[in-house]
């Protein structure tokens, strides 16, 4: 049977029976769970190797810009061509675009000839405009001169070149259709210019198709899942100043302010938190309604720059924003009803928070301590996001195989029409890149959980010192207890923290994989029809979510006992669980209500970060030119997630203070026949009143 821990976490007795005076929580410790610390270090080495592959092979510009007929990425500098200014991809041959849209057409849009331009060309009312290939061979023009001439050197062509151009085989192609900049690709508007078409026909050009298919072909390509995913990932790279401000600095400032308010205005904070949470949730929902186009005229649009206001282009991003807007409406309604339901319990939360506020007042270093793991996480996230962008774009540019299609084009170097190597280029992703990306995502989650767990363990050690010193004199608390707790963590318990964070990460990863499989089977129509299989499917999802929540709760209490006892993770989990189950009637409701208020506080910080992110992304910088984000959805979600993580680091000061004091109270009561000797009077009053309510409820 487990013996009392009072001697461990207060003064302890040495082997000869005398009382030692070496301080609080400084009993015989040793390194625990070393194997998992070695695994964690090896994992970090693997993360660095994995990221170096991305930095070596990837180019984030591929996520935004298309490829030209030479396989170059628009908007970037290459060995033989500087395309830095030329960000827009333009399909020069309208008949190839038309053929790619036919159901039985052999030519794919990826094999249609494209060039990189500064802006989308427009047909002329007086003459016929041309867009020619990059100057090469006998066309002795510099790239800047080619740009200044609006990409037109038709007058310099030889008769042979002119004849091939009239056959839509280049090197020059007519501008018959107007086009608009849609996500850095010039999408045709299926309204041919009558003047340009007449000039083309008078010159003896081949027949050009004018069907609506020419519009839909490019639109279908731009709205494919792969294209939308690339744009979403690219949005993260473009909005990095927003992530720094709204995902880092804003939640840092708000979290510190919240801790200070808890310290000085604890009675009002639960009420302020609940009201502010609902106001922020409604505000974010309204912003989604604005971007969905249901309020005002500021809907998400795929068109970049000035365009005809009567011309509209559909983008899947708008559908996603509208879906989130509906989801946020449902969440807001549930949140308001839940807030009304817990009003009677807010007073109980106030009593518990007062105890935590007293701890913060005594150990004031706790307020600024989370800035240390915050700085570490900030450095990690900057490295991780940069590596993620490179990994997502680390495919290999290869030329397509299109031998059975007619893609012939005039080669200025060979001085003839070439039909052998005229296929387009695409980015090919190998299976090991997919594995590298998932490995990178798992590494992010594990590292985040590790830093959060380490911070929680340090806070628990500091608060435990405070609690068990109250039976003696206040100077018994070690000088700078936060740094003393950090030293114990770094010297003895990093392996235990690595194990706890790994368990949470593993369970969350399994749940993510199962959810991804469920979505894929739902899309493919393979969802089980029999009621038994559907019940099993939803039951397994619910069970896995419950297991995840339980593990996170057990882990938090385990970190407290690790900080106090120095035991291994599994042993500390068993001790914490036994203490809680022995006192569940006395502490259960108090702990739950306190956690609810703190959870709402974290959501307040993260929602304010998301709201501020919306405001920054709504500025001119992110609505036009090359910095335009395709949708505010993912950057705002990233701001919300980062804000929540930062808030978790700082709110852990209050959260872990409450949990540590309650666990210490449980052990204190057990060591002293149910009469805690070190508990603050306010905590005793709160717990006793809670126990009386439970007894009355069970009696009736």
Automatic annotation (TrEMBL):
<keyword id="KW-1133">Transmembrane helix</keyword>
<keyword id="KW-0325">Glycoprotein</keyword>
<comment type="similarity">
    <text>Belongs to the CTL (choline transporter-like) family.</text>
</comment>
<feature type="transmembrane region" description="Helical">
    <location>
        <begin position="240"/>
        <end position="261"/>
    </location>
</feature>
<comment type="function">
    <text>Choline transporter.</text>
</comment>
<feature type="transmembrane region" description="Helical">
    <location>
        <begin position="596"/>
        <end position="617"/>
    </location>
</feature>
<keyword id="KW-0472">Membrane</keyword>
<feature type="transmembrane region" description="Helical">
    <location>
        <begin position="34"/>
        <end position="55"/>
    </location>
</feature>
<feature type="transmembrane region" description="Helical">
    <location>
        <begin position="363"/>
        <end position="384"/>
    </location>
</feature>
<dbReference type="InterPro" id="IPR007603">
    <property type="entry name" value="Choline_transptr-like"/>
</dbReference>
<feature type="transmembrane region" description="Helical">
    <location>
        <begin position="268"/>
        <end position="290"/>
    </location>
</feature>
<feature type="transmembrane region" description="Helical">
    <location>
        <begin position="489"/>
        <end position="514"/>
    </location>
</feature>
<feature type="transmembrane region" description="Helical">
    <location>
        <begin position="633"/>
        <end position="654"/>
    </location>
</feature>
<dbReference type="Pfam" id="PF04515">
    <property type="entry name" value="Choline_transpo"/>
</dbReference>
<keyword id="KW-0812">Transmembrane</keyword>
<feature type="transmembrane region" description="Helical">
    <location>
        <begin position="324"/>
        <end position="343"/>
    </location>
</feature>
<protein>
    <recommendedName>
        <fullName>Choline transporter-like protein</fullName>
    </recommendedName>
</protein>
